[in-house]
Amino acid sequence: MLKIYFNEKSDSQHKLKINIKDLCVTTEVTAIYPAGYGKDTIETLRPYNSYTLVSSTGKVKNYRKMSKSDFKFLDLNRLGVSVKLDFAELLQLYGTADVLQLDTGIIGGSERDIVIRIFEGKRENTEIIADEEYEILTFNSDDLVTGDHPRMHLWDSYALKVGDRLLMANRKGMPLNGDFTVPVTMESGKDYVEFEIIKYKGAFEDTELSRSIDDDDVTVESTCGVINNRRVQLENGKGSFRLYPMGHTGIFKIKLGRKWYEVWNEYNLMMGD
Fold it and tell me: Cis peptide before 34, with omega less than 30 degrees from 0?
């Protein structure tokens, strides 16, 4: 799936050329006002990742070669994990204007979900070369203040199952499904609690995913005790880990995320006696 959105509010005269082949994306920009030119490449797209092309005079590195460019791609996930800043703050820190944003969902097998939003540029001034069919759509940047970011639906979610309870929560820890008031307890004779991770489409918008490509590495963090596996590789959308509470009782959190986005689903739970 490849969707390309153009901003209805843009009056930019930028000339864009976007080339998408396999996991490589190259964008060339010729700016009219202020004048500028540049080309940068995402050499290998990663799943569940966000990139943005910004105005930033300097140099870029593509395939070990340095070249001058007035535009460059930022890997927002890697930068966000490194410096612990909001994506919007990263844009202001490393660039002067946001030309386009590219978000990926699942990438694996024959699946490749990509959404590109062009903030500065018009359809008639944009050349698109892609190795698959694509859909052209529009958006209004004025609506972004209150609307959902595409990644909220593009990035898949992880539910937690403990015992017979299936729990769902978003990245801010808000419960979406299941009873969070019942304490988590260890089974008789065991010094750990067994949790199962179950992958769902988007923001829990559909049934659970069980494809062979749903083999994500899910990072697990707990605010109490010890986890036996802090990076769980899913198999057909499922995986499990054990939490040893080490005598802890009361409130604790379990955070599920990815290597380059540490918390995507946060669970506020209670450990019983």
Answer: yes
Q: Is there a contact between 29 and 15 (Cβ–Cβ < 8 Å)?
A: yes
Which one is predicted more confidently, 5 or 145? 5
> Are the beta carbons of 191 and 246 closer than 8 angstroms?
no
Give the chain as a DSSP string: -EEEEEETT-----EEEEEEETTEEEEEEEETTTTEEEEEEESS--SS-EEEEEEEEEEEEETTEEEEEEEEEEEHHHHHHHH---HHHHHHHH-S-EEEEEEEEEEETTEEEEEEEESS--GGGEEEEESS--EEEEE-GGGGGTSPPTHHHHS-EEEEEETTEEEEE-TT--EEES--SSPB-PPTT-SSEEEEEEEESTTTTSSBP--TT---EEEEEESSSEES-SEEEPBTTEEEEEEE-TT--EEEEEEEEETTEEEEEEEEEEE--
Residues 209-220 have a mean pLDDT of 93
Strands 238-244, 36-42: pairing kind: unpaired
CA distances in angstroms from 171 to 13, 124, 217, listed in the order given: 38, 38, 17
Distance CA 62, CA 203 (A): 34
CA dihedral sign of residues 78, 19, 149, 153: negative
**Do residues 220 and 232 lie in contact, with contact meaning Cβ atoms separated by under 8 Å?**
yes
User: Is the confidence at residue 207, as pLDDT, over 90?
Assistant: no
Q: What is the distance between the alpha carbons of residues 238 and 269, in angstroms, rounded to a whole number?
A: 21
Q: Are strands 2-7 and 111-118 parallel, antiparallel or unpaired?
A: parallel
Asked if 220 and 254 count as a contact pair (C-beta separation under 8 A), the reply is yes
pLDDT score, position 29: 94
- 87 pLDDT higher than 70: no
